[in-house]
Amino acid sequence: MESEIFFEEKQRLGFNNFTLMFRLALAAFCYIAYYFTDDREINGDLLLWIGNIILIISILMFFVVHLHTKVMKGSVELTGLWSMKKVKIDLNSITSAEKSRYQTFQFNNPAYNLHFKGTIRFYTSGKEAVVLTDKDGLKYMIGSQRSNDLLKAVQQQLAG
pLDDT at position 125, please? Predict the structure, then answer.
């Protein structure tokens, strides 16, 4: 039996600024190298094909779900890519929920269940995050493009 979902968000891997800029820079390098290649029939075709393949992969990544966040009665459920395990955060052990910036950097790597300095991070894209603190002092930082809605749903579940 499926419980009622109060908030749901799917974040796609292609919208991450860091990986998108990296892929576009690689494709641009391939096209620039193709332009300056002397013997295009032998070496240039490979550079053109690699640049096109990188752009096609970039377009396909806009459809790949990296982080699926659900707030249900009594829990927050985070699901990642195919091989990643589902993480379920019990809201009965959460003492506080607040909104903050994910990081001050413009380009952030996607993270799923990354344990770093006492914080467990979940991030794909966006600038804001919701920080959940449990009874043991462990913090869960969940990046979201709709952090206000996520915070509101979590606070409603914490209130009762």
Answer: 78
